[in-house]
Amino acid sequence: MQRAYRKKGDNSHVLEAADLECERGGRTLFLGLSFALAGGELLRIAGPNGTGKTSLLRILCGLLSPSAGEVRWKGTPVHSLKEEYARQLVYLGHAPAVKDDLTAAENLSIACSLAGLPASEAAVRAALERYGLPGCCCAKRCPCGCSTSRSLRSMRRRSTSPGG
């Protein structure tokens, strides 16, 4: 792991990992892992397959409990913050978090619910229309033959590109 970028200004630790240990399938992936990031800092996690990169990210997000150690957000253990921590977090894994057997509208509604954001049917439809996606987008049920994951990835790319 290496720190890749540091923004000048706030030096207080926002995210801390203290003596983390992770065991999966009876194998120790890492132990005694500690770091502290201040506001604006990034951490690059790299390594060969099977060394615990994804498990570490899941632990940092609160999706997986460490075998030992603790993750703290602004000094407070994340397991005690629950939804408060989740609302301040964005996790982008390597696999798309969409289900091809649901429509784009259903996937977007679920994502909004999980994020604690109210989204009416009309708001979801308007968001999809903004990016030129029909609300029916679904690989299994859609008469136009489009793919939900492809459509939502396209929407994500357009919403994060400059001027998007």
Short description:
By secondary structure, the protein is of the alpha+beta class.
Instruction: Give the number of helices.
Output: 6
Average residue-wise pLDDT: 78
What is the CATH fold-level name of the largest domain? Answer: Rossmann fold
Q: How do the strands of the widest beta sheet line up side by side?
A: 3-2-5-6
CATH superfamily of the largest domain: P-loop containing nucleotide triphosphate hydrolases
Global geometry? globular
Backbone structural class: alpha+beta
Report how far the terminal alpha carbons are from each other: 32 Å
Low-pLDDT regions: 2-10
Reading the helices and strands in chain order gives EEEEHEEHHHHH
**Helical fraction:** 25-40%
Largest sheet: 4 strands, antiparallel
Domain count, please report it: 2
Number of DSSP-assigned strands: 6
- Report strand %: 15-25%
CA gyration radius, whole angstroms: 19 Å
CATH architecture of the largest domain: 3-Layer(aba) Sandwich
**What is the CATH class designation of the largest domain?**
Alpha Beta
Fold topology:
Blueprint: E1 2-5, E2 13-24, E3 27-38, E4 42-44, H1 53-61, E5 68-73, E6 76-77, H2 78-81, H3 83-87, H4 104-114, H5 121-130, H6 148-160
